[in-house]
Amino acid sequence: MIDATPHDGTGVPAGLVPAPRRLAPAGTLTLHAGTGIDEGPGTARTARWLRGALGAATGFPLDPAREGDRITLRVVPALETEAGGPEAYRLRHGDGGTVIEGASPAGVFWGAQTFRQLLGADAFRRAPLARRDAWVYPAAAVEDAPRFRWRGLMLDVARHFMPKDGVLRYLDLMAAHKLNVFHFHLTDDQGWRVEIERYPRLTEVASWRSRTKFGHRASPLWDDRPHGGFYTRDDIREIVAYAAERHITVVPEIDVPGHSQAAIAAYPELGNTDVVDTAALSVWDNWGISANVLAPTEDVLRFYEGVFEEVLELFPADAAEFSPFVHIGGDECRKEQWTESVTAKTRIADLGLADEDALQSWFIKHFDRWFAARGRRLIGWDEILEGGLAPGAAVASWRGYGGGIAAARAGHDVVMCPEQYVYLDHRQAPGEDEPVPISHVRTLEDVYRFEPVPEALTEAEARHVLGTQGNVWTEVMEDAGRVDYQTFPRLAALAEVAWSELPAPAARDFADFERRMSEHYRRLDALGVAYRPPAGPHPWQRRPGVLGRPKDGPPPNR
Ligand code: ACM
Description:
The chain is of the alpha/beta class. It is 32% helix and 19% strand. The structure holds acetamide. The site of acetamide (ACM) has 4 residues, from loops.
């Protein structure tokens, strides 16, 4: 145990975000051209990252095996029990430099993230501002471990495509906040973003649309430029590897059986052809929930097995805990076409099912078994509870806590991401200046006071809450600047909720968080993040005249 006091919400040096469990100031140290990195077994990824990130910011080579001061990286398995789990880490400083020890390679990496924060905001730049012989930093003994194992960000690249460079940048931003699960929402009514070799029309046809509604669907405005893009198989491999270098797992989402109009536009036979002329469909150019859903046929199951065979290859399960997961969506599947379709009705009768909800459940359960047979795990939005939950499935609880509570009570793992708290597309302040305001106001403080584990759960049930994630839906985010604005600074609050041992929501010291954020904004500036400033948007961040859909009052809890 280091000589450190429990974090009491005050006086965290250098405004560390997320706040560590314990720390004690320990004088000052310097980083200079002769500082070397001494990497122990299992720490190669962190050493590469440190050399890349800090080498760029300081101009120092950070070579291995230098004489003199060192940054020592070590995996110390005993820390797992001593310091709070497999991702625990410890930072110590002495005459010879800084020692970063982790219970695992990931723990060492999170320790390196804290170390960069200690060096100051300029350590987040990609080149030195001026020649400096030494960087003096406040040394601090830190002992830290995350509260939750699943600390995520979901990014919707279907509604608006984010080119690959932007995705890699978001992985860097996640790493800087100790987030470790990137939920990659790759398909929706408005676009299909992943190359599937055996179905080329998914990228030739489904990856772009000829125009796009600008603003909420009630807006009269259109952007008449074609919009689209997709990740090649090698792009995906690069993204997955880049994430793994940062101890982040990518969980891909292929949304079925709803949110599938883009796929149906490419392959009309996937739709309910006895109800609509699916050959006349195009990739949707408007927002909302399309009625064009997949047909519940064996041919459609076979088609998506083909898709998932390639998805499993592109997103392999490895040693990382959450790498077996594949997200299958399952949300908001409108049932009108199934109600009308003779094919769907016959299917319901043949399978002896009660109704359309049970048909959706049959569809999801098929893939639950299919994934399980391949050593993988299914996760879906909480609608997958309707009509009976597939045996091995985990649930992303978005419509409130209710789905997560029901799932945890039934022994299923849960990611708590209720829209009432962590939908980062929702507006973050009242008033006319918020760009394209959507839904209820969810301020930075609201996110900071979000509690992922509802009181209704017993201790044993609560152990099924793997963690939480922020969800970024991009209907009204036409570029990376808009994504930054909606995501930051609230993702920093979500990161602290996911990582730090915070008291009950009402007792959380938001003033202390804001104090630390004043330092953190300087880091975000250095990283080039177009966050929402505390006083409101810059003029160029506003979207005057673009209709949103604000809702009054606090969001109703479900
Ligand atoms: C969702 O927001 N439809 C998961």
